[in-house]
Amino acid sequence: MGFSKHVAVVLFLLHCSFAPFGSGSSGPEPARFLRRAKEPELAEWMVGIRRRIHEKPELGYEEFETSRLVREELGRMGIRYEHPVAVTGVRGLVGSGNPPFVALRADMDALAMQESVEWEHKSKVSGKMHACGHDGHVAMLLGAAKILQEHRDELKGTVVLLFQPAEEGGGGAKKMVEAGAVKDVDAIFGLHLSTDVPIGAVACRAGPVLAASGFFKAVISGKGGHAALPQHTIDPILAAANVIVSLQQLVSREADPLDSQVVTITKYEGGSAFNVIPDAVIIGGTFRAFSKESFNQLKQRIEEVIVGQASVQRCSAAVDFLAEESPFFPSTVNSRTLHGHFEKVAGGILGTENVREKTPVMGAEDFSFYSDVVPETYFYFLGMKNETRGALHPGHSPYYEINEDALPYGAALQASMAVTYLSGMISSTTAPLVKEVAAHDEL
Ligand SMILES: [Zn+2]
Ligand SMILES: [Zn+2]
User: Fold this and answer.
1) What is the reported pTM?
2) Residue 132 is assigned to a ligand binding site
3) What is the pLDDT of residue 235?
């Protein structure tokens, strides 16, 4: 390597490095953001918003009150926004209004389940509950918005605030993408509250972090009749039972043991009397994989096994993958470039010991739809475990609770990621940031 090449590499590295905190960089200093987010006035404001949303949970595409609350708060801050985007979604804009654009995303929907936690701000809507922390996600993004708006004149580009509907199976992110919510966006950051990660810490990884997910439903039809005269019937109960056993063999016998996959049956409906064989049984469930190939292979084999195994017991079967109501979620794959950026920024705010490695899990997130159009996507987990207060119940439990002490961390981190990303973009205008060629690679 010649001298000029050395110089070029040094210059390139200088261009690509993000502005260190508090080092006299021209932009705002993210190290201050956590202190700001922890100030009682801002922290308590976020807690209040989270509790208001918690009391009135709304399901996917019905987040009208939540959306109204978001718009009112953005309006009070003087942040301009677009609405409606994807039915109830809101798209706020902070900064210059010009490129580059970096997006921060929060999901707004609740779950169709009854809250069992007895507390002052328990859900007031029977059969609906924020049991996945999305009320906290909205509060944190509003907190980040407030911090960013306080520094709007220093932003070297534009932060796009995405409040999206229907993460829980409804594919709200897909509709946001289709509505153009991330048009021209260069990078997007999302987070999820985690009951496994300690308060003040985050967990993340480069590459695949959450699986691709699909649902299926099958109607297995036979011929009903008297339970004591099975010879005159075609029994769909037995056929469905054999179908389920056969489906369990897809992962254990056909998948590479080192390629994580799941097939789970969650639904079995059939019959209503002890002495009647029904005409039909409905089964359903979900399947998960990281790579597109494994996901498509599972989908094909699920249909073949259901139809083929049902026919062994003389039944017919129709399989529906519910693509309209629950679109397949792609796997969530983190950009390696943004991972380096995140480790640096989060480590600077929380301490490097509090930036932990996340093992991939077979859960799914519709955040993955953004990676279809946004060049760089990054999703991480925000800790809220505090053992001195006892263990927290996991997401989707009727006993799920948020440790509200986590809210300032999420607000500060999201604001910091956006600000430092924009600063990095500007400093790299003469030498573009290293784009992760395999940003969408899969496990
Ligand atoms: Zn959830
Ligand atoms: Zn969730």
Assistant:
1) 0.85
2) yes
3) 98
Listed by start position, the domains of the chain span 12-210+331-427, 212-320
- Assigned architecture for domain 212-320: 2-Layer Sandwich (3.30)
CA 396 – ligand 1 centroid, Å: 6
134 annotated as belonging to a binding site for a ligand: yes
pLDDT of residue 31: 74
User: How far, in Å, from the CA of 132 to the mean position of ligand 1?
Assistant: 5
pLDDT over 90, % of the chain: 85
CA of 434 to the centre of ligand 2 (A): 31
Q: Read off the pLDDT of each residue in 147-160 and give the average, rounded to a whole number.
A: 96
The separation between CA 89 and the C-alpha centre of its own chain, rounded to angstroms, equals: 15
Distance (Å, whole) CA 89 – CA 64:
9
Structure-block tokens of residue 345 = 């920024």
Whether 12-210+331-427 shares its CATH topology with 212-320 is answered no
User: Looking up tokens 């009682």, which residue turns up?
Assistant: 40
CA–centroid distance, 233 to ligand 1, in Å, is 42
Position 54: which residue type?
A: H
Question: Which of the ligands is closest to the CA of residue 396?
Answer: 1
* Span from the CA of 403 to the centroid of ligand 2 (angstroms): 15
User: CA 199, CA 384: separation in Å to the nearest integer?
Assistant: 4
Which CATH superfamily includes the segment(s) 12-210+331-427?
Zn peptidases (3.40.630.10)
226 labeled binding residue = no
